[in-house]
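Researcher: Good morning. I'm working through a list of sequences from a screen, and I'd like to move beyond sequence-only analysis. For each chain I'm collecting a predicted structure so we can compare shapes side by side. This is the next one on the list. No need for commentary yet; just the structure.
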Amino acid sequence: MEQDSAKTLRPPAPLRGLDLTSADGRCGIKTLLAEIERLSPGVILQQAAGIQIRRPGCVTLADHRDRAQAS
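Model: Good morning. Structure tokens for this chain:
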């Protein structure tokens, strides 16, 4: 099981060599993201929203409703 979770955390092979500290690397990732967005509009924002919701301390709409009903 631990191997499975480690695999999911590693970036795909084409992205491993991408140096995000260089101008070329940043341009490359922007190009990749732009192409993904062109092919599937909104998918990047959906994924980012999912990550944001799972962050510790992030309050969701359901949390607000639960608090309001408890009052």
